[in-house]
Amino acid sequence: MTAWAHRVSYIRIRGSVVVQDGFLPFPARSRFSRLAINNSTRRDGSVVVAEYIPTLAFPLDQFLINNKHQMQDIELNSLKLPPLTRQTFRGFHKLRSLALLNCEISVIEPDVFEELEVGLNVQAVTGFTPQLQTLQLISMRHPQLGPGMQELDWSFLAPVSRTVKVIKLDDNRFRNITRTSSFGFTG
Questions:
Q1: What is the pTM of this model?
Q2: Average pLDDT of the residues in 110-116
Q3: Which domains does the chain have, with CATH numbers?
Q4: Which of 42, 77, 90, 159 could be 115's S-S partner, Cβ–Cβ 3.0 to 4.6 Å?
């Protein structure tokens, strides 16, 4: 393996999507901590509606299975994602920023960030305090795939309520917003 491969900390993929089942997870890299995948950007940098409509859900947790323990910043744009469940972010103990922009997501389960809270116990072993500080769920629908997520349960924020500082929920069309657990943001 070449020396540069071990120094990679940031990967950006533009104009690419998973078009079939059967992919290999990204190889383990000791410094890889930031990922950006954008299916709607042209080479000149202008943003357009994705030229290729994603039909397969992008398997984020499986794609990063070898690196999730060190991921700090993830930005996904114009991808179809599977329902976000407790399993989705298991092992992402250092995640600071999550941006899901123009992604087709049908469901965010209330316990989606439970595994990040479990990560707080990692501090005793590693000395690192995980903190999801920025969460962006912008336009949670893909214009060519339908209306996207219709309901949002505020309870999904409970596990990260002590650390999150910025929440952006721009341009969504929720029909129903609920809260199934009692929690408050700590001050």
A1: 0.82
A2: 88
A3: 8-178 (3.80.10)
A4: 90
